């Protein structure tokens, strides 16, 4: 089910409870325009407008406003309010009201513990103290906070008004002439690609990155009861895959997007074609797959089985004349899924792993795999030699990048990384991660819905280069670009990481 169908039952706007206040103060709406990150603020109709106190503009610290400006806050009964610069990216949500705001209001001086970037703020001694208006904390946009603490670009002109830019990364919002139905948009060769529904028919559309107002129909999706759909990269090319029909009664369809901006139909069914020298290997998968699902298909639909036809296979990779797979005998209840090597010349099948294994990766001359039974990660040579435990348990899911293993804790769902010869280290504290995607220069983490961020991107030195608090439906990465769709507001954004 699409995340767009999820209804958000609550939104946190108030970042700190209010226990007591000092004296009342008078504040007013600014008589000049305010532009934040290139967006002009509609103070006249905002539920939480910027205000002016003692000649200084004050900023409302609502949940979304803070994250739009790259800061985060936390309230605890013991510590009070903490404000920290984090560089988080968030959508601008104006939260407009039907009526018009008054010109002036009564506010209060905040009378609780406050820390900014770990420094204690004695609000009673501040020339421009933090204030509270309509149960929301406001901080003064003085040089001390705006420039020294948060590092924002700050300009004020009596005619043009106040201009503040908090982001080093350029995040751009863009619209498409037709709504994408899967929240899954890809960028390739200067185009956006997505799927639309027009009069109950589904089509793949494209639009130029530099001109999204005009879109072109590329092809209609075949089949009935079309569900799901996603773009993915394979061998340097972009493909689109979706399912038609009801589970086993239907089939998967795959298309390839070519560099000339045309679409080529590839396959339909539950199988994959693999090229090996001058022959084509068929690998069956899905609900209809059974033993003997790895074979050469000859003329008249005759099959030449690869390995032992009594086994059920999951294809992984061919290196030289050896195919690496996981396999088990469906008719044997005691047979566990293990890693095998098949010699493509002799068809000899050799068991490599001595413990149960499923997903595995081959890096250089080593195989890394996880056992679902003991939650451990093992390594061994390409012939099964020197099998060792690399990570001793609590692994729910993992990927490997050269000499570094990234894995998600089975218990806490936090993400860790371990380099060869070193101990495991926590990559991100107290954040539940769904999966990670390893790209040439980046590590992209997708988080669970209720976590602080939608996606977080690290470089290969484990430094954060991008994170957004937006609820991300899906994302696509292309070299230094990330494009993502938000499922609660259905907006599309593109950001260049460097």
Automatic annotation (TrEMBL):
Signal sequence bounds: 1-22
Record keyword Signal present: yes
Membrane spanning stretches: none
Keyword Chloroplast: no
InterPro entries assigned: LRP1-like_beta_prop
Domain of life: Bacteria
UniProt keyword annotations, A-Z: Signal
Family annotation (Pfam families): DUF5050
Chain ranges of the Prolow-density lipoprotein receptor-related protein 1-like beta-propeller domain: 222-492
Name of the protein in its database record: DUF5050 domain-containing protein
Originating species: Tepidibacter hydrothermalis
């Amino acid at each position: 089910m699409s995340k767009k169908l999820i209804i958000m039952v609550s939104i946190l706007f108030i970042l700190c409870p209010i226990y007591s206040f000092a004296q009342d103060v008078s504040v007013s709406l600014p008589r000049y325009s305010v532009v934040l990150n290139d967006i002009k603020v509609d103070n006249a109709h905002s539920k939480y407008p910027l205000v002016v106190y003692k000649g200084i503009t004050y900023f409302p610290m609502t949940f979304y406003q803070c994250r739009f400006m790259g800061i985060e806050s936390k309230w605890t009964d013991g510590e009070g309010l903490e404000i920290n610069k984090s560089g988080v990216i968030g959508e601008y949500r104006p939260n407009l009201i039907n009526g018009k705001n008054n010109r002036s209001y009564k506010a209060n001086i905040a009378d609780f513990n406050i820390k900014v970037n770990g420094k204690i703020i004695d609000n009673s001694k501040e020339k421009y103290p933090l204030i509270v208006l309509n149960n929301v904390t406001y901080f003064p946009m003085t040089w001390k906070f705006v420039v020294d603490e948060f590092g924002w670009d700050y300009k004020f002109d009596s005619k043009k008004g106040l201009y503040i830019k908090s982001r080093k990364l350029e995040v751009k919002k863009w619209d498409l002439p037709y709504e994408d139905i899967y929240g899954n948009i890809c960028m390739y060769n200067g185009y956006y690609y997505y799927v639309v529904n027009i009069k109950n028919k589904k089509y793949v559309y494209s639009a130029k990155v530099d001109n999204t107002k005009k879109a072109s129909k590329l092809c209609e999706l075949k089949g009935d009861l079309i569900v799901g759909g996603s773009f993915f990269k394979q061998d340097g090319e972009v493909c689109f895959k979706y399912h038609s029909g009801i589970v086993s009664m239907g089939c998967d369809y795959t298309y390839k997007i070519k560099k000339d901006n045309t679409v080529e139909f590839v396959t339909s069914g539950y199988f994959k074609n693999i090229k090996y020298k001058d022959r084509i290997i068929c690998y069956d998968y899905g609900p209809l797959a059974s033993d003997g699902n790895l074979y050469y298909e000859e003329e008249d639909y005759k099959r030449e089985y690869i390995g032992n036809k009594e086994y059920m296979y999951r294809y992984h990779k061919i290196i030289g004349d050896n195919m690496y797979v996981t396999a088990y005998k469906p008719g044997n209840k005691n047979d566990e899924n293990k890693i095998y090597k098949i010699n493509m010349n002799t068809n000899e099948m050799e068991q490599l792993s001595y413990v149960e294994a499923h997903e595995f990766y081959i890096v250089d001359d080593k195989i890394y795999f996880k056992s679902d039974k003991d939650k451990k990660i093992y390594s061994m040579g390409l012939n099964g030699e020197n099998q060792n435990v690399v990570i001793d348990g609590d692994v729910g899911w993992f990927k490997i990048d050269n000499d570094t293993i990234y894995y998600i804790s089975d218990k806490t769902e936090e993400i860790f990384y371990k380099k060869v010869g070193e101990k495991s280290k926590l990559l991100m504290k107290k954040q539940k991660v769904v999966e990670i995607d390893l790209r040439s220069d980046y590590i992209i983490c997708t988080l669970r819905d209720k976590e602080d961020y939608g996606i977080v991107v690290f470089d290969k030195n484990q430094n954060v280069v991008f994170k957004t608090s937006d609820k991300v439906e899906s994302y696509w990465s292309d070299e230094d670009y990330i494009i993502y769709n938000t499922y609660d507001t259905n907006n599309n954004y593109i950001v260049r990481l460097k």
